[in-house]
Amino acid sequence: MNRLLVVDFETTGSHPRQGDSIIQIGAVAIDDGIVTDSFSTLVNPGQAIPPFITQLTGITEEMVADAPSLEEVFPRLLRLLDGRAFVAHNASFDLQFLQEALLSQGYYAFDGYVLDTVELSRLLMPTQNSYRLGELASDLDIEHENPHQADSDAMATAQLFLHLMNIVNEMPLVTIQRLQMLVSSFRSDIDALLRYVEMEKMAEIPLLDAEAEAEPVLNEPSEMWDIYRQLALRKRREKLTASLRTPAYDTTSIAPFDDMLGQVLGDAGSMSVHVAGYQRRDAQEAMMHAVFEAMQDGTHLLIEAGTGTGKSLGYLFPGIIWAKQNGQQLVVSTNTIQLQEQLFNKEIMSLQQTLPFEFSAATLKGRGNYLCLRKFEQALEEPIEGSSQEMRLVKGQMLAWLTQTETGDVEELSMPPTGQLFWQQVKSDTGSCLNRACPWFSRCYYFQAKDRAKDADVLIVNHALLISDLQAENRILPPYEVAIIDEAHHLEDAATQHMGKQFTTTQLLFLLDRASVEPGAALTRFAEEWESWVGAPQDFVAEHMAELQALYAPLRDKATHWTQLLYAWASDRAEETTEAGRETVRYRVESFTGKHERIRKTTRKLIESMSAFAQVFDRFVRGLPADDKPPFALRSLRTDLFGLLNDWQKVTELLHFFLLEQDPQYVYWMEVEARTARKQVHLSAALLKVSDSLTEPLFAQKQSMILTSATLTVKNSFSYVINRFGLDQLPEERVRTLSIPSPFDYEHQGLLLIPSDFPAPGKENDLTYVDAVVQGCVDVVLASKGRTLILFTSHSMLRLVYNAMKERLTDAPDSYTLLGHGIDSNNRSKLVGLFQTIEKSVLLGTSSFWEGVDIPGEALSSLVIVKLPFTPPNHPVYQGRSELLKTEGKNAFMSMALPQAVILFKQGVGRLIRHHLDRGVVILFDTRIVEARYGRSFLQSLPPYAVESGPWPELRERIEPFLGMSTLLDS
């Protein structure tokens, strides 16, 4: 395993046995961790190269016309491969071409070790969002100039492999040994590689005698690792364990707010010294004054702060000063984990350098975001035999992750669907926590996070946790009276999701798997540990296990039958309402009548069978003698089984809630996967009205809530969000509003073009409409030289336009790179990064790209909005809330649909001008903005862009001259 050959083939297709051939070979030899040789050549395949292969690789028929044949070049490759392991990215693809070529030329098939860097990367780099070679190379700063050309791919793969070997070589021996047990069934020979590394490590570690009579023990250095109970954890840095804890501080010595403002933000202040590029802004200071005064006066404040205001600093600076002066904790809530981390790692760090006093900060997420080490240890004891390869991979990923994480936060992980289900088994929760009786307590990720949160001056959470704390009657977060809610326009959606209920058929089947009575399952191991502890077979154990076995198989059959019935019912009626590729159907319990009554009957029978099983299960687990103290392994299993029983009870309650007895306060719907073969049903329910659930526990009880966003108003009025948050139920004097416009000169920096001759927005089968959109997008891309972001409201429309644009741009004089969300990558950050670095690129995105995307400078010069972002009228939550508004005598479109669309439209337009030197064009292909009466609401809510409307052939000629002026301005 110290001699390897990294290989990449470019081919005419994917099927060597059906005639596809190699057109390029790249190979890189690695000996003892060093690149020692390389070889690359084009190959004449003796057949035509399909156009899509030429487009992918850049290899044309002219380039291979004079190239040698495979028969001529193969001996060189085989000499390099002799005695070496075969390494490739997605090795099965390259290996099948190698084997076919060997056999066709009379050689024996290759029978050496095979290593797949995709499989190895997934195992050892579990926090990656993508395992494509290009994205891995980008993340690891590996040079990869010509993706999809064999020489470049092979060298990039070789560098990736060396990086992976560094990870393995740095791992503690105990992790290597545990991983070996999990990877034996993997497609490539990772077990052999780990065995080789294990032998190398053992050879390096001296054997020491602890005492004269003791057996020799391995003495492995542990500066980086906390090795405990056969698991290796990364040691926490002091910053995390101490959480920047503040020493005792005399708060009376903090200067008055106005003095502090001048001291820190003045021309010679600490902010300009410590923060590169800091500029004092009047708008930002106006926001600071308003926030501090609202906190002082005990009022709520809604602030719309335009792009460029410096919103984060605008609320953190006064909030921290107020908190320190008053000896209180400041809570800051964001909508996304990414902003939560950004505030902690960027803005907070800057303020810790610049404020003339010390303060501490911490982040906290919901308990289910943290790994329970006791449960994970227990899960590793489950027999490997019989578990799926994907489950083994997930456990291996988490073993590797433990040597990398300091937080135990699931947000760091990028796991397959099986991993997301497995997380439900090993996450921290109240129902199966041993607290101080747990041997892992001092290392518990959740309790460490809680400790940091309790002691911090500033606690950064997300909306989901803030809402959960309200539901738990303030038992999750430390007590607080003042909070800042950033991205406040998402508060209603966050409350809708987290005050609602969700359940999937896969969850049910996974729950049944956890309660299996097969060998190696938790119940079986509990029985075995019990009898092992007592030292003899127990009639009580045998009787209950027999009874559970008799009940389990019929229960599993009923669950499978129920799943099939539900899927058939939902898939027959569902239609697309989400961009995620799911189809949705709203339902009521009354829907299951007549011939569909059997769904309810089957649900009742399923609940009855689950209840019968749970009764025996509960009696069995509680039967363990309480007088004697069982060993930890037995107590740990019992705790897990009580947690499983708790989950079991919740699932039976959810089944009853979703299908037997409906709550009129909720709207109910099902979703099925439209683009996959997975026959899974997602059941959801949302409160029709969340404002009541926000008003009393949050706004009526708390002293001061600061709600801020770049988009809170519609036509310069806050009335929509005030109503949706329930703030209209409070006395007027308790609610203040402030709108701070952006400091940018939109009239000169931006241009909004609205074609008047475009067809009205139609469906995707409306060829006239789709063709106009495609051609319009191509026109913008050509005029802008790429540098274009195109925003869609439908993922299927994005795919249609992406494919059509790719075809039409093939003949363009310049080469353009299209980056489609969900096509080239699902990771927004990666796509934005590629867009900023690849010249003449075009980025196509759906809902997540309408906000939170920050691309300053000329990398983004044109923004296309295909359609006004109205919620689909058939979305269940929209339908349910529309009906409620009608009963209140209100117009649902004007009261809800229009304001929602305006706020999202403002967010989308806000992607373009991000800096005072930016210049750009917004193009809207939706004529309703000028033809419909409500269109003025959109235009009046925007910053003062220069707006032009007219025939598209005339408008598109405005783009290039307008953008060309930016070069003159910068010079």
TrEMBL record:
The keyword Flavoprotein does not apply. GO terms for molecular function: 3'-5' exonuclease activity; 4 iron, 4 sulfur cluster binding; ATP binding; DNA binding; DNA helicase activity; DNA-directed DNA polymerase activity; hydrolase activity, acting on acid anhydrides, in phosphorus-containing anhydrides; metal ion binding. ATP binds at residues 305-312. Residues 270-540 form the Helicase ATP-binding domain. Pfam families: DEAD, DEAD_2, Helicase_C_2, RNase_T. InterPro entries: ATP-dep_Helicase_C, DEAD/DEAH_box_helicase_dom, DinG, DinG/Rad3-like, DnaQ, Helic_SF1/SF2_ATP-bd_DinG/Rad3, Helicase-like_DEXD_c2, P-loop_NTPase. GO terms for biological process: DNA repair; DNA replication. A motif (DEAH box) lies at residues 486-489. Its EC number is 3.1.-.-. Keywords: 4Fe-4S, ATP-binding, DNA damage, DNA repair, DNA-binding, Exonuclease, Helicase, Hydrolase, Iron, Iron-sulfur, Isomerase, Metal-binding, Nuclease, Nucleotide-binding. SMART domains: DEXDc2, EXOIII, HELICc2. Belongs to the helicase family. DinG subfamily. Type 2 sub-subfamily. 3'-5' exonuclease. This is 3'-5' exonuclease DinG.
